[in-house]
Amino acid sequence: MKKFAVLGYGTVGSGVVELFYKNRAKIESKAGSEMELGYILDLRDFPDSPYAEKFTKSIDTILADDEITVVAECMGGVEPAFTYLMQCLSRGISVATSNKELIAQKGAELLANAKAHSCNCFFEASVGGAIPIIRPLHRCLAANEISEIYGILNGTTNYILNKMLTDGMTFEDALAKAQKHGYAEREPSADVDGHDACRKICILSSLAFGKHVYPASVYTKGIREITLEDAAAADALDGAVKLIAFVKKLDDGRILPAVMPMFVPHENMISRVDGVFNCIEVCGDAIDRAYFCGRGAGKLPTASAVMADIIEAVKHHKTVFSQDWTDAGTQDFIAGIDELVCGMFIRFAAEQDAAALCEKLTADLEGCGSYEADGISAVDHAALITFPMTKAQRDSLLAKLAESGLTVAHWMPVMEA
Amino acid sequence: MKKFAVLGYGTVGSGVVELFYKNRAKIESKAGSEMELGYILDLRDFPDSPYAEKFTKSIDTILADDEITVVAECMGGVEPAFTYLMQCLSRGISVATSNKELIAQKGAELLANAKAHSCNCFFEASVGGAIPIIRPLHRCLAANEISEIYGILNGTTNYILNKMLTDGMTFEDALAKAQKHGYAEREPSADVDGHDACRKICILSSLAFGKHVYPASVYTKGIREITLEDAAAADALDGAVKLIAFVKKLDDGRILPAVMPMFVPHENMISRVDGVFNCIEVCGDAIDRAYFCGRGAGKLPTASAVMADIIEAVKHHKTVFSQDWTDAGTQDFIAGIDELVCGMFIRFAAEQDAAALCEKLTADLEGCGSYEADGISAVDHAALITFPMTKAQRDSLLAKLAESGLTVAHWMPVMEA
User: Fold this and answer.
1) CB neighbours of A212 closer than 8 A, spacing ≥ 6?
2) In this structure, is residue A323 part of a structural domain?
3) What's phi and psi for B289, nearest 5 deg?
4) Yes or no, beta carbons of B285 and A22 under 8 Å apart
5) Is the per-residue pLDDT at A371 higher than 50?
6) Shortest Cα distance from A4 to chain B (angstroms)?
7) Average pLDDT of A167-181?
């Protein structure tokens, strides 16, 4: 008999409890042991819950119970979750967390403490909700040198961008609709300004490259500036605007992580991942590329990932050494956004004659390094896409456009994967 | 220091050797141990190979070496692979195999022998090539009751169907092109008649539901009958023809696995998985659905999956109990194809007036149970799609169509996921 506890009885925590009792026989069979939910920690009272007798307001009750094998943390936020989990790990209790803010900020410390006490700090649910990505990335792709990861890691912004494209809703209206449906918070900044996606790409970057990438080191731009005109022009050029979180390994060994709206061509299946779904593309030297898609949030989808971690902790009570990273003591291994080489999706302030625009820009592009007449890969009457360029080349092109009286309304990078 | 051996130096086996030396530092770091390739077993001679001194023609050489921790089997076919792997497992040597024919035929015996000797029989590479699916299915989705799995599990047929749709090539021409590019064998039956996909859905079904599903129990139909007209009509109805391997859990607890060409609506991302890529959709009660896509074959992609198994075997030399299934002693838990409830994609022998066709069929469908006027979900001048029906309802509709002089050229099931 293995006992576990759940910290936080919000959406995810109550989902973990629900899922355990729903599929208990299957879960115990997979874990190879009978299991019991020992405690639910929450500061609120739930007198009518069928699990009322399991609630506690104090972590000490849980820490004092020697029978607890693993604790699932679904509270969110850095504190008190961090303090609680450090106390658990120090006692050899494994933890499973859905808390991306916590892992993005404190992952290296938690993982080191787990290692020191021969137990595990699992976090499958912290990225991509229901999507298996943490274990596949570090185990199934273990023989690969990872070169790039791209993802739609925030379902709220993907829902909003999708509504703008398919229903012609403005950003504000689409956000209001997302809030009405419970897909967006009343204070939507963590989603629409990219912070949530930033935390998740920090976790994937840290896991893939072994050094803790902190959110403050990652260029992050949200979707507030995206207009209906951007969505329509992207569609005309056979692509879609998506909030993309990515990390690339540069030739010098440094990595470049960032979060920003990008033009994604329809050739890449990420462009067609709609609504609240998430999708992650991993590029490695042996696999070429693999995609992982599914529900990125929600009660039972996220609980599924937490419960998988609980099962693993019950089965293997011994540190999984490779599923970790360390604090490098510096963030010098992270390149800044100015080093990004990318194509440009440029939307003009007024409609243009496409043929004349193309001719004009071909001349302009002659000054942009080696791109010259090949610089444009697609052109519509209101927008165009260039081949990949350095920042200097991009700046030069934008300056030439300004000189020639062509007003750029908005530009964003092209996802090249 | 952990030693491993590779059986079979064909495409996959030589890929495993190449990948090990290419990414050795990373692989050893993930495995938590230094590693060495001890032997390569092949009946052919490779005197010019840089690894010439590692070749052996006898499994006994490998079995006699007490330092061998894990053997990678990349020979293909049931024998002698089965005998060799049983010998390894009986000595406590873990195995990692890419051989789907072997696992589909002999999985239960191999897994039981691994369990009896406290070692592992891993087979991540047997389904989906580079795509992580075996571990994600049994570990990351462990808390789910799996209800359905759908997949494009054969890249050769997907390439052929894709060429028919996008380049207007006939089946014969597309097959010839696939053979020219090395995507199809000279004797293409295993691919185009669905046997390869059948073996893979047997493995996924056995893993998801715990009982060995043998290929002989699975209805299997290939793509030889698919015509350019089918591809064009499917496109007109916003979908694509794909060779789909699937398994569904029925309400009475039995399962229904099958392989057949299906109409896949474009709303499902599987319809847009092109070329030699594979994609697997897993439906579970907590996750809703998740998708796993990537290269389903090829030297390094498949080697990536084999090497991940080797790493796991080096790290955890102890049976992973839940990653297995047993022989149920009967195949009574498998339902036959006549029990499939599905919509129909019906293509007519001659073009029809779409409005008149719709009106006519609405009348015809009144005799088809509860479907009546709602029976048709999409109609083109040459084809239509119905809502889901039982076999009796389908037979009734086809009889009515015949009576009324509307000649059906071809029909196939609609993938409903």
Assistant:
1) A107, A108, A206, A325, A326, A327, A328
2) no
3) -150, 150
4) yes
5) no
6) 15
7) 93
- Whole-angstrom CA distances from B39 to A414, B51, B99, B102, B303 are 47, 9, 19, 22, 17
* Residue B316 with chain A: CB contacts under 8 Å: 316
Is residue B177 annotated as a catalytic residue, yes or no? no
Which residue, A92, A28, A76, is CA-closest to A297? Answer: A76
Residue entry with tokens 């976090």: A123
Residue in B272, B298, B322 closest to A30 by CB: B322
- Interhelix angle A100-116/A81-90, rounded to 10 degrees, is 20
Q: Note whether residue B82 is domain-resident.
A: yes
Query: Is there a domain that residue B251 lies in?
Result: yes
The ipTM is: 0.94
Contacts B124 to A, Cβ<8 Å: 140
Contacts of B311 in chain A (CB under 8 A): 139, 142-143
From the candidates B292, B295, B302, B319, which should be mutated to test the interface with A, based on the most A CB atoms within 10 A? B292
Question: The domain that contains B170 carries what CATH number?
Answer: 3.30.360.10
The reported pTM is 0.95
Q: Are the beta carbons of A382 and A352 closer than 8 angstroms?
A: yes
Measure CB to CB from residue A135 to each of B31, B135, B298 and give the nearest one.
B135
Q: Which parts of B10-120 are beta strand (E)?
A: 35-41, 55-56, 68-73, 94-97
Residues of A in contact with B279 (CB under 8 A): 291
- Among the partner residues A26, A300, A321, nearest to B32 by beta-carbon distance: A321
Overall domain count for chain A: 3
Report in angstroms the alpha-carbon separations of A287 from A148, B192, B294, B343: 12, 24, 8, 36
Range with lowest mean pLDDT among A107-116, A228-237, A392-401, B219-228: A392-401
Task: Give the range of the structural domain holding residue A20, as residue numbers without chain letter.
Answer: 2-129+300-315
CATH code of B366's domain = 3.30.70.2470
For testing the chain A interface, which of B4, B17, B21, B30 should be mutated: the one with the most A CBs within 10 Å?
Answer: B30
Catalytic residue among A2, A3, A54, A200: A200
Residues of chain A with C-beta less than 8 angstroms from the C-beta of B291:
279, 291-294
The verdict on B10 and B114 lying in the same domain is yes
Interface test with A, best of B20, B266, B304 (most A CBs within 10 A): B304
Q: Same structural domain for residues A212 and A239?
A: yes
Residue B32's domain is classified under what CATH number?
A: 3.40.50.720
Q: Return the H-helix or E-strand segment holding A393.
A: helix A391-403
pLDDT averaged per 10 residues in sequence order, chain B, 417 residues: 97 97 96 96 96 97 97 97 98 97 98 95 96 94 96 96 93 94 89 97 97 98 95 93 98 98 95 93 97 95 97 84 86 97 90 71 56 59 86 88 85 90
